[in-house]
């Protein structure tokens, strides 16, 4: 099966709009943040360049890319 694909010129395959990717947290854009392994993402948000308090520490939110997204959106 032919699996050739061409990454989108605007987003480079991240499927985020260029305007979204312009926003960075620490030195990472949202696509890069969502790409972080969970352990690195946790360090990034807890003590790393993002320097944001862990979001909703006591909630049932799990350490998934979904909760990383929530942290981003709530800023
Ligand atoms: Zn695109």
Task: Assign an overall shape.
Answer: elongated
Termini separation (Å)? 43 Å
Mean pLDDT: 76
Please state how the strands of the largest beta sheet are arranged side by side.
1-2
The biggest beta sheet is recorded as: 2 strands, antiparallel
Low-confidence stretches: none
What small-molecule ligands were found? zinc ion
Task: Count the DSSP helices.
Answer: 4
Number of spatially distinct domains:
1
Q: DSSP strand (E) fraction?
A: 5-15%
Query: How many β-strands, per DSSP?
Result: 2
Main traits of this protein?
binds zinc ion, mainly alpha, 37% helix, 75 residues, two-stranded antiparallel sheet
Give a description of the structure.
The chain is mostly helical. It has one domain (18-73). Helix content is 37%, strand content 5%. The chain has helices at 18-21, 30-35, 38-46, 65-73; strands at 24-25, 28-29. A two-stranded antiparallel ribbon has the order 1-2. The relative contact order is 0.14. Zinc ion binds next to loops.
């Amino acid at each position: 099966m032919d699996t050739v694909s061409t990454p989108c010129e605007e987003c480079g395959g991240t499927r985020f709009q260029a305007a979204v990717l312009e926003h960075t947290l620490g030195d990472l854009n949202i696509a890069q943040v969502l790409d972080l392994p969970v352990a690195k993402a946790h360090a990034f948000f807890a003590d790393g360049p993002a320097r944001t308090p862990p979001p909703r520490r006591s909630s049932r939110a799990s350490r998934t890319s979904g909760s990383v997204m929530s942290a981003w959106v709530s800023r």
